[in-house]
């Protein structure tokens, strides 16, 4: 279908849709059922069966299964069956862990999918892009990603970057006019917008003509290379660590096997024991647990209104030293309310807040609305905000600044009907570089003029006359100082100021922005406030305690920014404020010298953000940068953690970011940093637990060989220890709550290794103690039991397990086991109880005693086991508690 040749009316008729009311919801649902979701076909996901079989592809598991086959051939049927059952259970655990990770990542992808603004039943609604159907009337604004192919029917300066289709990065200016040409290639169809392209400027409305695989990008989907999932730096480091641990475990295991054979133990018995020990010692579950810990942490972040788009951001969050945050909407409520108006020589107070009713007062006396009517009417005409009213309430759609103007206009008894008396001929949209918006309009008398709305410091140099009541006066030095003084006064009260200007135009006059945005007549100022969020002050203090500096970046006046910064206790007494003008005239070297002492950047453009990020990074900082617009994308990409706004952010900004704030709230950044730190610490916890436990298992076997004792553990016992201690307790550590002082610690150095801060020593020393107490338990039981081997092995078996399960609580704290309440993590309590529940039947259920070569234990045996198992934890816990108390006393 050659949609580009059709007029807007023809397209609407063909697709059975009313341009003014959109599709009916019921019709849209029927079309969605018929055509399917609006998305491209994806590669087939691995089946559940494949995920399960994948668990048996590990080299050591294959060796173990081969050894099990050998055991069966030699008549050791019970051993063979038990080992197969244990391997099967282990594989099930791995399977469920991987499945959980896949579901978490799929949920992430769904949450970060783009949204679409469509007209349904005469109402503009926001829906997931997958629910868009052919015939939908869809709104496009600067920064949006086009979610389907569409015919543009209305446009105002809209330009679309189509590099995803054409490879050409220069944006294409689009038109709504039909094109009377045949066989036109899609790059030349300038009245069409295609799925996957980006709106870089202006805004418009289109009718969806194709969705999913029927779109232009869908037709060439085979040429699109899907990006494979990338490992995070942490996962890559752990993968390298895993290889090293495999080599070390194999060397130590081989040494134990050779030593055992040399001492006269049967080769088959030592081989099977060696393979079992290697399987237990190698932390093959580590990558899966890391993935699950990351995905579970990401799910917790989602509950705190933060979506992680790149998993590498999770570990980088813990290293963040500077947060560069937008002011409006992030540190403030983004509920702009007009409090003051200024007409030349007259200040007017506006009451009523964000409600549609209120009064206008001058010199504490209520005045009529006629004096402010022109100012607010022009402001309303030069905006895209609108009010949707119901019987009991109202909702304002549009930019918060424009919404505030429309609300104030309604207080002056102005309505949409008043706005509709002006026909908009042309528009030059607002952008963060121009800091102004212009519409060329024609009124009912066919008088044509331009209305310009923007920042006072941008518009005043373009003003030549001022409206003084009903007459124009030339803007002289006196008038300019009067207006500038009022701007400064408003800014000191934390009011954001908007200037409204007009310019009469003649028919046929040059209507380029260069022409119409000069020689303006000043109408007045609008002063509005966006109050700070109540919770942000506390969040900034928390970040400061965590060694993280908060920097405010805003397009507002420096005085306004300073007033808000002081209310939030963001800027210290020695803190500097720099403006965009300062940055324009400042060499990079000088900015690098000043940036560490600067806490507020005012009147800046997105281009300045990139300069700020680079200066901070040159000083060695790890920078988190917020942004919401198309032009913010370079700074978001350049920062260590790009943070986009989920509500006000454009799709371009979201795609360039690593973190999306669903509520656009600064406090969410602080929560995300805390969660990111906690995820990394939890990963360190279970690395510490797994490796120390594995070291203990190897050493108890090694000590027995060195002192010429029999094997303290048989293969099925080794594998069972691995099953009950490695899985659930390690996973439960990944769910641990943060330590109380987590946000009082300095940021983690970005190049810090996993074993930093003494973790390597803790693993070796605790593993050594676990191995020693287990060997002592075995040796004493073997001697006292008059060489009753099964009794001694049962004692060793239980001592090793109980020592590891006690050690898991020690791993919860960097300081001491006594530093935390064990009942804070009920998942861990449950995991330990489950592990013990898997052990008790092995000792007291007679059929299992035969399989695992165990004997029942008496009360005195359990007292000895528990006493020995507590020795490593008590010894280290007491030492660490003394050390912590001493350090605290020393700091005081």
Automatic annotation (TrEMBL):
GO terms for molecular function: ATP binding; ATP hydrolysis activity; P-type calcium transporter activity. It is found in: Cell membrane. Residues 2-76 form the Cation-transporting P-type ATPase N-terminal domain. Keywords: ATP-binding, Cell membrane, Ion transport, Magnesium, Membrane, Nucleotide-binding, Phosphoprotein, Translocase, Transmembrane, Transmembrane helix, Transport. Its main location: membrane. One of its GO terms (cellular component) is plasma membrane. It is a multi-pass membrane protein. It catalyses: Ca(2+)(in) + ATP + H2O = Ca(2+)(out) + ADP + phosphate + H(+). The chain crosses the membrane at residues 48-71, 77-96, 244-264, 270-296, 686-708, 714-733, 754-779, 791-811, 823-842, 862-879. Belongs to the cation transport ATPase (P-type) (TC 3.A.3) family. Type IIA subfamily. This is Calcium-translocating P-type ATPase, SERCA-type. It comes from Natronobacillus azotifigens.
